[in-house]
């Protein structure tokens, strides 16, 4: 996949079959997070939830278990199929192929929108936000829900440093992760107010070996680096692998990662 083939909205179809291998927030932590959102008034106790950029349904299926009606949209047919396959017979969840910049939803049709790492992959992300707000009822919330640092590790940092040195610093198609203030400014202009929700204690830990991380790079798990042309990508990966192999434990080096849930909610006026 080269820079020339990246779509205006990035599709995860190439890794749909192994997407859930990358990481997954523990279901109980997600449940605790949703409890907090209800307590703080950012999420209704029941209702219709729009999962924007739903992927394989990791973030919204726990809500379906609680009786919410889920409408998930993603540009990847393969990701949508994987999500729909997980839906239990007694759950009201429908995952559909759709572009978050133009959704087949009526104005004010949903009780909340959740989005996990979506806007970084949408080139005209401002239009996507405007469209998502259109689908929200008055007083409903647009919720940014991420599993912070879940994919961050020393090997990825090293690969990223080499990518930067090679001139591939502008790798994000949409909203840059370091510029979330642009989203806050846009939502403020749209008349939204932030609902403060404290989930700072919702974290977990996992161990991963450098060999596994290198295998993930070979499978091109990390969408951030997809815009790098294949020849350059493989060169950077080879240099990263040589660096790993020079370490005392080489590919058997194990790193402990402590991801945490990160939430920002904005109520529509």
UniProtKB/TrEMBL annotation:
The UniProt record lists the Methyltransferase type domain at 50-143
Please state what the protein is called.
Type 11 methyltransferase
Q: Which Pfam families match?
A: Methyltransf_11
User: What broad taxonomic lineage does this protein's source fall under?
Assistant: Bacteria, Pseudomonadati, Pseudomonadota, Alphaproteobacteria, Hyphomicrobiales
Which InterPro entries is this protein grouped with? Methyltransf_11 (IPR013216), SAM-dependent_MTases_sf (IPR029063)
The record's listing under Gene3D superfamilies reads: 1.10.8.900, Vaccinia Virus protein VP39 (3.40.50.150)
Instruction: State the organism named in the record.
Output: Agrobacterium deltaense NCPPB 1641
Molecular function (GO) terms listed?
S-adenosylmethionine-dependent methyltransferase activity
Its GO biological process annotations read: methylation
UniProt keywords (A-Z) are: Methyltransferase, Transferase
What is the superkingdom listed in this entry's lineage?
Answer: Bacteria
